[in-house]
Amino acid sequence: MTDETTPLTAAAGGSGYVVLPPEPTRFYQGPDRVFPGGVSPRSRRNKMRQFQCCMGITFIVIVIAALCLALVFSDSLGGSDGSPSFFFVVNGTDGELSPSQPLPDEPAADWALKQAALGHQEGVQAVSAGIKALGDREILEEGLQPNEVNTPAFRHYRSLSTNPEARKLARRGYVENQATMDIAKRFNYTKQPGRSNIGWGPRIVLPDPTVLRLDCDFNARFRRSTGVCNNKQHPRTFGASMVPYRRMVSPDYADGIASPRESHHGRRQLPPARQVSLKIHRSSYETDSNFTVMLAVFGQFMDHDITATSLTTSQEGESIDCCVPETRKQHPECYPVEILPDDPYYQQYNISCMNFVRSAPAPTGRFGPRMQLNQATAFLDASVVYGNLEQRQSQLRSFINGSLRMYITDDGRELLPISSNPADGCNRVQMTRQGKYCFESGDDRANENLLLTSMHLLWARHHNYLARGLQDQNPHWDDERVYQEARKILGAQMAHITYNEFLPVLLGQNLSEAKGLLPDKDNLDAPDTYDPEVDPSIANCFAAAAFRFAHTLLPGLFNVSRDNRSPEAVELHKMLFNPFSLWAEHGIDHALMTAANTPVMRVDRFFSIEVTQKLFEGPAEDKVPLCGLDLVSLNIQRGRDHGIPSYPVFRRHCRLPPVDTWEQMAQAVDNATLVSIRQIYESPQDVDVYTGALSEPPMEGAIFGPLLSCMVSDQFLRIKLGDSHWYERKVGPQRFTKAQLAEIYNTSLAAIICRNSDGITRVRQHVMQRLREEGNPQMDCQDIKGFHFDLGPWSEANQEPKLHRSGMGRASTSVRVISRNSTKEPKTANVTLHID
């Protein structure tokens, strides 16, 4: 019998392996009845009995000690509920995967129709069917009315803004999906029971209005805005914007191609998302006394830096109304949330439908299952501040001394550039009459809530602070060089806060260290971690499920007391699309201190009613029905829309104990939760991963359970290892010097707040954590580590050799690949199809 430590060697004359037995221990053995030292046979027998007795006692002691150690060890690895805390250390196949390696993605399914005689003509016919379906959809859209401005549905649409380039790509994705369904229909493809999908088929080439040549200089010092040219082997796809989300596991569509996930048990439908929200994710008011809302605010800000799901819109980018009368035809991309007649909240408004439009399909260049488009880069590159398209970056720049364009108030304060668009879902007539507008930033979602807008303003100010300092250090630098250097530093600081302050709270210090997610701030000579084989692209399940855990953190009331003595609070929904208090003196200070002084809710299956029935409700003066949306229902619906497989599938993928039966699930969640889940779901195989993951008790030292820890840590490990411009790189022109890196390691969110607020003078050093008597006291800003950020290491006078003035690296051989980053029209409209 062998174990994992048994040495293997190739068998002689064969291709298999054999186990080498250990070399036998060689004892001296003399002739029979001859004993060393003249010991008699009887004495020898007595000694043998004594020896055997001692060995027996020793064996018993060892067994007892082993049992005790096992109990202690299991407790040390478990959370307060007994759940495993260090499953990642042994989560590889047969224990082979290092905890500091990403989990390998599940291989894509084989093309289910590969045996069919799919020739050129069949492919052309399928593409023609797809183009016709798109044409029919566009004709339908011409007669549809969009959502009324400033309704909850319209605000939801604005919170998932889709840019023009994404709309063009989504049209191609729609054609590909419709073509795949046409092939499946003609070849009688039927999905097999379980999580099967049609797989990836032959390539398909459509007229591409966004193709141009891409020149990559892999010695460039600065990132490209779109994230391209980061990986030499995959310059257009690994981590770039406008590419499909990566699949950690294969999708689970009802038809194997594109229809939202359904139950695997006969024709039974999955329980309505709103019913799951009501029965399992009901309201709770238990706060987490250890952490503040700043954790959720920074988390949302950072999330918007790496995820931006493209929503299906009309041809002109208008919203789609899915809750239409039965007499009107519904848009084919509608997937509304069903509201049951006995709904305790919506029945009073006689509402039976919650608007929900499917995420836009991403083009893949192949026949195959539906994918979704990520408009953001996967890298922590501060694109949320600058934008991830060249055009957006240019709009936000002043082109003076490397600074960003800002609006200067009468009293000299810097605000973000104003948005004068009356249909942006934020601006209100009452406010514009007072000269108060919403804002523009690197991300269209910046106005979604007051605290998020404040974070955008904070980092935009910080860029200008860095630009001024760099210009002082290097007066000869031009605008472009100053801008790019400031952008590079700011992106590094944002990444450092994420891995130094944010992730250790989510995952716990020990797990973060085991996964290699902590910065190497104590070892500037640590080896380079970049791995070009790692795809940092964002996983679909991360964007559509796992990282939406933060919605459970949001409290119903926010502490807006300005002196922390007299209690004063405001409801969450009144802060949504309401950034106008930033126009007041110390507006940003009050918003930031609200986030720093309000405790978050616990990460569990419970949500505030502010989230489950008042989302985007809007103020009374809007004169629209005062009933908001249910964010939990929308999250569950989004996971089904994306074909995200069920909870047990991800448990298996993460090498966690299975939950394929109710008895097994009882070991992963508490009894009360299990009872609620069993009342709603027919089988464990139906449980949505969002519901299952949030139902797990937190691991020791972390704020959530094993499955979320696995999914979140894997994504952030990929972001770190798969980024050739990662701020801790030790080789290449992208790297910082040791002196520069030492300054970046001093960065903290508290220091960023102190330096760029209007008048905050005291703050906790760890602003995502609550005030403690020991370890996290209030401090003067002057004493906060990193408040005095030294830009001296960026002075060219202190660097040898000097950097190239253009900052774009040394000359090198360019690599040319095909990109989709242009709005140029195609030279021909003919459909060309290639099958391989």
Task: Give the overall pLDDT as a whole number.
Answer: 84
Calculate the terminal CA-CA distance, rounded to whole Å.
48 Å
Q: How many E strands? A: 18
Largest sheet: 2 strands, antiparallel
| CA-based shape | globular
CATH topology of the domain at 383-548 and 707-793: Myeloperoxidase, subunit C
Indicate the structural class.
Answer: mainly alpha
In helices, the fraction of residues equals 25-40%
How much of the polypeptide forms β-strand, as a percent range? 5-15%
Q: Compute the gyration radius: what is it?
A: 30 Å
DSSP summary: helix tally: 23
Secondary structure topology:
Layout: E1 8-10, E2 17-19, H1 41-77, H2 120-142, H3 152-159, H4 164-186, E3 212-216, E4 243-244, H5 273-279, E5 287-292, H6 293-306, E6 337-338, E7 353-354, E8 373-374, H7 383-386, H8 390-396, E9 407-408, E10 414-415, E11 418-419, H9 429-432, E12 438-439, H10 450-473, H11 479-507, H12 509-514, H13 540-544, E13 557-559, E14 569-571, H14 587-597, E15 599-601, H15 609-612, H16 631-641, H17 647-653, H18 662-665, H19 671-680, H20 689-695, H21 706-721, H22 738-745, H23 749-756, E16 762-764, E17 778-780, E18 815-819
Antiparallel strand pairs: 1-2, 3-18, 4-8, 5-15, 6-7, 9-10, 11-12, 13-14, 16-17
Q: Can you put this structure into words, describing what you see?
A:
The chain is mostly helical and 836 residues long. The chain has a domain at 383-548 and 707-793: Myeloperoxidase, subunit C (Orthogonal Bundle), CATH 1.10.640.10. The chain contains 23 helices and 18 strands. Strands 1-2 form a two-stranded antiparallel sheet. It has a two-stranded antiparallel sheet with strand order 3-18. Strands 4-8 form a two-stranded antiparallel ribbon. Strand 9 (407-408) and strand 10 (414-415) form a beta hairpin. Helix 6 crosses helix 14, helix 10 crosses helix 11 (479-507) and helix 10 packs across helix 23 (749-756). The longest helix is centred in the N-terminal third of the chain and has 37 residues, at 41-77. The model is unreliable at 1-44, 69-95 and 801-836 (pLDDT under 50). Its main location: secreted. One of its GO terms (biological process) is kynurenine metabolic process.
